[in-house]
Structures are given as C-alpha cells and as structure tokens.
Design a protein that fits this description.
- The chain folds into 3 domains: about 80 residues, no CATH class; about 110 residues, Butyryl-CoA Dehydrogenase, subunit A, domain 2, CATH 2.40.110.10; about 150 residues, Up-down Bundle (Butyryl-CoA Dehydrogenase, subunit A, domain 3), CATH 1.20.140.
- A hairpin with an 8-residue loop joins strand 6 and strand 7.
- A 4-stranded mixed beta sheet has the order 1-4-5-8. It has a 4-stranded antiparallel beta sheet with strand order 2-3-7-6, with no helix packed on it.
- The protein has 11 helices and 10 strands.
- Helix 4 runs antiparallel to helix 5 and helix 8 packs antiparallel against helix 9.
- The protein is an alpha+beta fold and about 400 residues long.
- About 5% of the residues have low confidence.
- The protein binds flavin-adenine dinucleotide.
- Flavin-adenine dinucleotide binds next to strand 1, strand 3 and helix 11.
- The site of flavin-adenine dinucleotide (FAD) has 23 residues, from strand 1, strand 3 and helix 11.
C-alpha cells in the first residue's frame, strides 16, 4: 500500500505551505481591523488562490476548481497544521450551500451562497419535530400558500443554534393530501420576524445549544422554496450525497487521543501515573487501532473517488465509526479521571491546557451521547448501512408506505 501522495501533490503541498507561511496568522496591513475583518480578508485571499470554496462557482463567491480529492486533502492537512481557518463550519456551509448549488434558483444562490461562505449569515436546520425524528417524513408543521406568501404554523425541536441563526432551512408539510414523503416542501425562513418563538433547551452539560422553535403564522415569500412544491424530501436528501471521507475525522480523533494520553500521563491511578497501568495502555492502543482503521478506510474511499468509483458502504460508515471511537475515548477518559470524572460539567476544567478551556472530559463524555443521535441515530445509521450499503431486506418496523 503506497500512502504517499506523489510528486505533483507534494509540490502542491509546498505551494500551500508557502502561502500559509506568508498569510497566516495575518501580519502588517492584513492584521489591521477587527478579527472578523482579518478573517474575511484571509478567506478572500485563500479563495482567490483556489484553496477554499473549491466546489463553489466564482459567480457565487467560490474559487471554482476542478474536483480533486487529493488536492482538497492536502489543503485540509496544511490549513489544519497551520491553525488557519477554512470555510465556516456551520450547518449553512455543510448542508444548505451544497443543496442550493444543486437545486436552488440562480437568485437564491446569489442571495445566500456568498454571504454564508463569508460567515455573514448563519443558518439553522428545521427538520426534527416532537414525534418526528428518525421518522422525519411524518412531520406536521404546516405551510399554506396565501397570496404571495407561505404561512407557517407548527413546532420544530432540537434546532441547533436557532437562537443565533439569521435564517432557517425548513421542512414543512404543504400538501396535506399527498403521501407522507410527497407532501413536504423545503422552505427558507427569515428567523428575525414576528411569530417565531425560540425557546432554549437546557442540556445536561449545563449549556443550551439547541432549542424548540414555535411558528405562529410565520411568513416567507412564495419563491423562498428550494425545488418544487412537494419535493422537499428529495431536496433534503441532496446533502446525503456529499458524505465525505473519514480522514479529517480521524485527524480530529487523533488530536483527542493525544489529549487523552496527556491526561493519562498526568493523572494517577493507585499512586502511579495512569499511563503505566497495563489495562489503560491496552485500551489506549485499542482506540488507536480503531482510529488508524478509520483513517485507512478514508484513504481507500479517497482512492475510489479518484477512480470515480462509488464509495459504496465506506461513505456510510464514517459517522458510525466516529461515534464509536468517540464513545471509547470518552469512556476511557472518565475512568482515568476516577472520582473527578463525576464532577458536574463546568465545575472544574479537568483537561487543564490539554483541551480548550470550555471543554472538559466530562462535557465531552456527555456530548458523545448527543453525537450518536444528531443527524440520524446510530441504530438508524446501521439500518442505512444494512439496506443501502449491503443490500439487506428493509427494516420491518419502519412503515415508509404512508
Ligand atoms: C446534538 C444534537 C443536535 C441536533 N440538531 C438538530 C438540528 O439542528 N435540527 C434538527 O432538525 N434536528 C436536530 N437534532 C435532532 C436529531 O436529528 C434527532 O434527535 C434524531 O433524528 C433522532 O430523532 P428523535 O430524537 O425523535 O429520536 P427517535 O426517532 O424517537 O428515536 C428514539 C430511539 O429509537 C431508535 N429508532 C427509531 N427508529 C428506529 C428504526 N427504524 N430502527 C431502529 N431503531 C430506531 C433510535 O435509534 C433511538 O434510539 C439534533 C440532535 C442532537 C442530539
């Protein structure tokens, strides 16, 4: 197995490194103004060089590069190594922008893509409702066309960052007499208007990252619909095609494992550093094994991308593998902390300088539970792998016919 990227890509790596050495962190004139202004200038420069927003056309603010998974990988590695910011990470960039590029009207792309890319507007995702999570297509929030506007009534739940969002992309039932998957439309909604009530949901970490959102005669223009009436389910599936390989995720997991090893060196178990305990060492090595396997399956997927072959089941495995590894790291961390591991989150920073100051292993342990649920639960993910990836018979429990 040859894991080197080859001469051409190593030369490209040299270019990216040289660019970053000169441009990040900003210095001289580039360091003038607020942090936001510096960030914006840096992103614009990186886009003009073709390093960021590669799949976004120039007319919508991107750098419009030919698809090249290896170059993309090199850029990600070098930006991460330099601590340089890439595109904003929010749900708008991850989900809405690819959806608009594939299915949106030109005016929608012009209005929303560049502003999202530059971090000027933030989005939230209005999919889940009480009783409609895994069985999302049963959602009940109604949208009725009255004159030139959609009038929306109902409730969403678990809406991450709704309290900070400028807009929501939202699934709404607009065709009440159609079959459940065919009665949904994909609407864009301005969050700063009368009739929207955002109520925080307190989490066990003490934070309130997600919310309930109530709609009471909320309005959105008739043409703020992506795709046609009743096509919302199809539109919402667009982003599933943008599943990425797992190399980036493996990089983050490696950083977490490094933090865990540092904690194991610092903390004592039975009077000696935890890292000297044979069982702890065995489990650390076991986690590392999972991370490497995850990384190599990412390389395998990238090779398939390069050969223009379908990633098949590999593309579906990423989330569940990340979840699984995250749980193992979290569980081991809590055991290494012993009694300190059950201190309420936020009480003390157990990580010291090993993680950023807002995060503690206790917080991470709790958040790991959420990661197994967000964006489709681990069980549902297993169903998807079984049905779409392995071609096994459909789950008898799920009634998708109505
Ligand atoms: C951190 C976090 C952030 C989130 N952010 C957002 C957001 O921004 N916007 C948004 O719309 N939603 C968001 N969600 C909601 C998330 O999408 C749902 O929680 C998720 O889809 C599961 O739905 P549910 O909570 O209704 O659970 P349910 O669907 O009721 O599932 C309950 C249990 O039943 C199991 N189950 C259900 N159906 C099946 C099946 N067919 N086969 C096997 N097992 C099954 C599940 O695996 C789970 O264990 C977020 C959730 C979390 C945890």
């Amino acid at each position: 197995m040859d894991l080197s990227y080859g001469k051409e890509f190593e030369a490209f790596r040299g270019e990216v490194k040289a660019f970053l050495k000169q441009s990040w962190p900003p210095s001289g004139d580039a360091a003038k103004g607020s942090k936001e202004e510096q960030l914006r200038r840096f992103r614009e420069l990186a886009i003009s060089k073709g390093y960021l927003a590669r799949s976004i056309p120039k007319q919508y603010g991107g750098s419009e590069q030919a698809p090249d998974p290896l170059k993309g990988q090199v850029i990600q590695e070098e930006f991460n190594a330099a601590g340089a910011p890439m595109e904003p990470r929010g749900i708008g960039m991850m989900m809405l922008v690819p959806t608009l590029l594939e299915r949106g009207e030109d005016w929608q792309k012009e209005k929303f893509v560049r502003a999202t890319l530059m971090g000027e507007i933030a989005w939230c995702q209005g999919y889940s409702e009480p009783g409609s999570g895994s069985d999302l297509a049963s959602l009940k929030t109604r949208g009725e066309l009255v004159g030139d506007e959609w009038v929306i009534n109902g409730q969403k739940i678990w809406t991450s960052s709704a309290h900070e969002a400028d807009f929501m992309f939202c699934l709404v039932r607009t065709e009440p007499n159609a079959k459940k998957h065919e009665g949904i439309s994909y609407l864009l909604i301005d969050m700063k208007q009368k009739g929207i009530d955002v109520r925080p949901l307190r989490e066990m970490t003490g934070g309130a990252m997600f919310n309930e959102v109530f709609f009471n005669d909320v309005r959105t223009p008739k043409n703020w619909i992506v795709g046609k009436r009743g096509e919302g389910w199809l539109v919402s599936r667009t982003t599933l095609k943008h599943e990425r390989n797992s190399i980036g995720a493996a990089g983050q997991m490696t950083a977490l494992l490094d933090a865990l090893v540092a904690t194991a060196k610092r903390r004592k178990l039975d009077g000696r550093p935890a890292i000297e305990d044979p069982e702890i060492r065995r489990r650390l090595i076991e986690v590392e094994g999972y991370i490497r396997a995850h990384q190599y399956s990412g390389f395998f997927q990238m090779t398939k991308d390069l050969k223009k072959e379908s990633p098949g089941v590999l593309g579906l495995m990423n989330k569940i593998n990340s979840t699984h590894i995250g749980h193992r790291i979290a569980k081991l961390a809590i055991e290494i902390l012993g009694d300190d591991g059950i201190v309420a989150p936020g009480e003390r920073n157990m990580m010291g300088s090993e993680m950023d100051s807002d995060s503690t292993w206790t917080n991470y342990y709790m958040a790991a539970v959420g990661i197994a649920i967000a964006g489709g639960t681990a069980n549902v993910q297993r169903n998807v792998i079984a049905e779409r990836g392995l071609g096994l018979p459909r789950d008898v429990a799920a009634d998708r016919s109505k």
